[in-house]
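Sanity check

After download, print the first record. It should look like this:
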Amino acid sequence: MQDDPHIIVVEDDREIAALVAAMLGANNYRVSLASSGAALRTLLGRHNDIALVVLDLNLPGEDGLDVCRWLRRTGNLPIIMLTARGDPIDRVIGLEIGADDYLAKPFEPRELLARIRSVLRRTAAIPLGEPVADTEPVEVRFGGWRLDHRRRHLVGADGLVVPLSGSEYRLLATLIAHRGKVLPREVLHRLTGGTDDAALDRSIDLRISRLRGKLGDDLDGSPIIKTVRGRGYVFSEAVEQC
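Expected structure tokens:
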């Protein structure tokens, strides 16, 4: 049906692509297949209803990590990496450059389905382009920045949009919602919808570092996101709700 979520599976292994497509189709998802980054770009140009991308890293030609970086530069489409690179450091790198979740091959199809549902629930919590609830601010302002909750955009004082991945947006929104409170890594990991894999806790540090770079936190001595040694992180800037 047209209202079923539309997912692109970027996978050059035909058997795996067919397996994933069949599993998703049986669970009321529409699926488009792409065997390369170029094919993915073609599909994105043809469709404006894509809900999520399942992205293999070992692609012919352009590496999946480069494709992920491109997706993050151009928007905040949810990404689940599906790859044979199962080492924890590879998972951290994938999350650090903007993936919303990571699943190593060989994988259990039901686990992939559960992760897709989880990511879609998180990213649909504040639908893009839709009004937020009356109890939630449309945007918040802090230190010359605006965080637009409807579009998940970070906007600078110059009016330029700084792209945020889904995981970066959730992390920043969580820190702002609990401003002034020290949040341990494990709490941030849980509040932002992280998996139960403790090895990925380091991804919080990497995402904090990436957020600080986008906020210019490393340019002066008064960072917006402060580290409390041995305890966690705290959002220290005053916030104005709009």
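If your output differs, re-run the checksum step. Summary of this record's structure: The chain has two domains: 6-123, 139-241.
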